[in-house]
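tool=predict chain=A
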Amino acid sequence: MQRRHWLEMLGVAWDAYPLEGCGLLIGESGGDVVERFVPIRNEAESSRIYRLDGQQYAKAALRADADGLDIIGVMHSHTHTAAYPSPTDVAEASKPLIPPTWHWVIVSLGWGYPELHSYRILDNGIAEEQVGLAQ
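tool=predict ok
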């Protein structure tokens, strides 16, 4: 991802704090490169869970499709825990409409400084993936 996407994700996490912030990763279908990050309102308005605003999600999906792109993952923040998928995150990843190729980016603010990690979650298994930043 571009450095600006990383900074946008950190900004969403800090702006939402003490609640969880969230957004969508947009790129080529099934791909690993984030072309665009789209902040999405957390309908849950919670410090422990997130729920993407349905209207904003649909708008982002339509725009991505119009640009020949797709949603390739989700970012959300953890306000009090590490940047590691929680049992709730793993359960979300197993929902039928969630593609198995999605990237699950988590920004933790739990230690007083931001920490970003990305994962693939498939069949309740969690695999961390390397995050590369380009200028």
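Residues 3-16 form the longest helix (14 residues). Residues 52 and 110 are 21 Å apart (CA to CA).
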